[in-house]
Amino acid sequence: MQSLFSQVQLVDVHDKVFRNIVSIQVSQDLFDDLSSDPQDWRLAQHVEDEVKPPAFVSATPVIHRPFEDAHWLNAIDWPFQHWQASRYSDGRFGVWYGAESVETTVYETAYHWYSGFLSDAGFHKKAVQIERKVYEIGCDAALLDLRPHCTTHAGILHKNDYAYTQSIGARLHREGHPGLITRSVRYVDGDCYVILNPQVLSSPRHYCQLSYRLDGEQIFVQKQVGQDWLSIACSDLC
How many CB atoms lie within 10 A of CB 4? Predict the structure, then answer.
């Protein structure tokens, strides 16, 4: 078979992409187990804010606000600081995953929630719910376009064998490429962005809140409380 890298082309990307992460809809105070007095909670939060260094330093600090630090950490920086094995990494470097639509992020993350976390914990037969947050993020980069080669190189879209894609990710990381675009494994109409360099990502902003509810063999997704937006058969994810 002809080498993938002798065929693949670059695509110049200047788009908004979506990232879907675990979150909570109702804020929790992290210091409420230390004291029953809300004033003590606020004091502890103030002390923490004063002593911890910022994780994100804006190139234009005059026009940025403190909340953008949290957006950057949650939406962009987390996978680059917390390495783990995934489709395009063996765990020795961080990879950021996003998609062209919220729907694609839902199918991808629902698979990992059901087939990974719930099944491993033995909860896949129970009624379980999780809350998630979707960010919209700017992406400006020349990315390798694997989409035309997904049918001729079967390893790109293999359901659960990551050996081929991890070899792709390892080479891109070693050679300093910013990332790639590929077809979604879990959603036939979707594209996924695989980013190795956080500098090509920018302007994260909160887009919407979601909740996933496992009920029998279906996962129900809500954008608004009490209104199902999507339903996904668990058998379609495996």
Answer: 18
Place of tokens 């804020």: 27
User: Which of 72, 75, 67, 63 lies closest to 49, judged by CA?
Assistant: 67
Confidence of residue 237 (pLDDT cuts 50, 70, 90): confident
Over the stretch 46-59, which tens digit does the pLDDT of each residue have? Answer: 555 555 444 445 45
> Token match 């500098």: residue?
199
Burial label for 59, CB within 10 Å (0-12, 13-18, 19+), is exposed
Report the first-to-last Cα separation within the chain, whole angstroms. 28
- Comparing CA positions, the residue from 127, 97, 98 lying closest to residue 211 is 127
Closest among 51, 50, 29 to 40, alpha carbons compared: 29
Number of H helices, E strands in the chain: 7, 8
